[in-house]
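Reminder to self: keep the SMILES exactly as supplied, no canonicalising. Ligand is 2-acetamido-2-deoxy-beta-D-glucopyranose.
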Amino acid sequence: MLKSLTLVALAFAQHVQAAAYTPACSASNFSFPELDGTASMSITAVPIYNYTATSLSIGGILGSTYTISFCNVSVTYTHPGSGDAVNLQVWLPSPSSWNGRLQAVGGGGYSASFGSLYMTQAVGTGYVALDTDAGHIRGTEHAQSPDTWALIGPGNVNMQLVDNWGSTSVHEMAIIGKAVTESYYGTNPSYSYFTGCSGGGRQVMMSAQRYAGDFDGLLAVAPAINIENFIPAGYWATQVMLDLGVIPPPCEVEAFTKAAINACDALDGAEDGIISSLALCDFDAHQMIGQDFSCNGTTLQFTEAGAATVQAAWTGPSSADGKVGWFGLNKDASLSTSYISTECSSNGTCTAVGQLLSSWIQYFLAKDPSWDASTMTNELFMDYLQQSEQDYDSVLAADNPDLSAFRVAGGKMITWHGLADETIPPNGTIAYMEKVLEMNPDSSEFIRFYEAPGVGHCYGGAGAAPVDALAQLVSWVENGTVPETLAAADTSGRPRELCAFPLQQVYVGGALDSADSFACRPRAENGTLASETSFV
Ligand SMILES: *[C@@H]1O[C@H](CO)[C@@H](O)[C@H](O)[C@H]1NC(C)=O
Ligand SMILES: *[C@@H]1O[C@H](CO)[C@@H](O)[C@H](O)[C@H]1NC(C)=O
Ligand SMILES: *[C@@H]1O[C@H](CO)[C@@H](O)[C@H](O)[C@H]1NC(C)=O
Ligand SMILES: *[C@@H]1O[C@H](CO)[C@@H](O)[C@H](O)[C@H]1NC(C)=O
Ligand SMILES: *[C@@H]1O[C@H](CO)[C@@H](O)[C@H](O)[C@H]1NC(C)=O
Ligand SMILES: *[C@@H]1O[C@H](CO)[C@@H](O)[C@H](O)[C@H]1NC(C)=O
Ligand SMILES: *[C@@H]1O[C@H](CO)[C@@H](O)[C@H](O)[C@H]1NC(C)=O
Ligand SMILES: *[C@@H]1O[C@H](CO)[C@@H](O)[C@H](O)[C@H]1NC(C)=O
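Structure tokens returned for the bound complex:
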């Protein structure tokens, strides 16, 4: 209520000032704020007219083309003594196009920011947009490997850059972004939001856990909460495959997934190509050994090595004592994209491809650009998993369930995760949310988590993904409209209402194209809950 009145007051102030106050997009109109441990290096400000780019909203599937005009402010600063240079971009729409709000956007993979890919739509929908490169190169093309920045020399990780990426740049972005906004419009943003998917979702989670008060609303999609665990652990299937020395073609990997969906799709009552009832799906890839599948018109048989590799992706690694390991992917997630990514040449020889998972071990654990994955034993792999937890948990993990400061600051957070995520096992997010609810059974007053059955990483898949989670977040923050469910739709437009955890979406009968055929129900008591696993 207080907030709504402030909004009205600010809108009025803005209106009154419009005549007298002319924002100037010139570097001399911006100054670097007081911020412990930082020093400004440069500020530039250049007006950009009719900039056209294709851009995505966080968790959106369809890119749209926007033409935007804005003041492009670029702020570069350092942490004195460290030799780093962190760059922040703030894109300021004209006062008449500004909706009074600020939206920071995160990156993904090893990149802290994707620049225009997310920023353009934010400006196009009226927000001040900002992102930070955290001191290393931005862009989707650098998301797969930290090769350009991880090491200061052989055997030595650049811990300043890891720390910037892990948390500090998130807070610095908020403070500097708000100062730049105020300099330009002569008023603070009425509300500030931070949205991100994957690695960006982890940045958002970090904001809630360490810098409560920086943002009013947070949207964390498929958050990389335990990045130090699931990235190296995700390499387990490839490790098993290389250890067996048999590389299955992509079509065999995909055929295993189809077989699992055939076996488990109907367990939830709805035959929709989605495995919703994960606890009931005890399908084992070994059941398929020797059976036929079709690969580009040729009939082949499922192999034992293929089954062992696929099963490794589904169960995840676990050390003999059960203390080191991580979750696997659900059985309707695509495996050939990332966990078992292979390529075959015309002579039939297949090889493992993809860098996202292996580059973590190469740069952050082996710390050796010439590291040879094929020489790693299963034992060394488990040692690396343990090392990763020891070295990076305190700087990168966004898994602190104590969100009391965020609650006190009055923040609101929406997080959702596709259950068919092919990169980040959703069970990690489920395990985190169980801990949040255990610590504060009333946490749904300020953080809500929704499972999206059948949805892939950030977007994609057969399931229904949220249509506009940010709009629901804005209504929650600004109007107090509680998002009891998240409005979602699949790619053919079939609507669903995603359930707030720990409720679970269940099919209650009726047509699959009607949202009313599904309801939110408590989890079955016998469902294996993720937190029963010892390593979380
Ligand atoms: C912006 O800077 C220019 C000088 O570069 C100055 O003339 C102008 O008054 C400043 N505008 C504001 C709004 O501070
Ligand atoms: C931007 O595009 C609009 C509409 O096409 C045009 O009227 C305007 O002159 C353009 N502005 C600049 C600075 O090019
Ligand atoms: C904004 O300014 C920065 C710094 O000069 C520049 O690198 C970037 O390309 C500019 N962005 C656009 C969209 O022009
Ligand atoms: C089918 O063949 C094409 C070209 O020969 C190849 O690119 C593709 O990977 C194959 N598909 C599968 C599923 O192996
Ligand atoms: C993930 O959690 C579900 C229950 O929510 C469970 O059935 C499944 O076995 C878990 N998967 C892994 C790989 O731990
Ligand atoms: C098959 O082709 C790959 C790449 O084209 C080559 O490296 C490999 O030696 C070939 N294998 C055989 C058995 O000819
Ligand atoms: C808040 O509620 C009012 C009245 O129902 C509505 O007009 C407005 O669009 C809502 N604003 C948001 C951000 O949801
Ligand atoms: C779990 O419990 C439900 C009823 O609560 C029952 O219908 C179902 O068969 C049980 N599943 C397993 C695997 O025990």
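Points to follow up:
Residues 49-50 surround 2-acetamido-2-deoxy-beta-D-glucopyranose (ligand 2) (CB under 6 Å).
Residues 76 and 87 are 4 Å apart (CA to CA).
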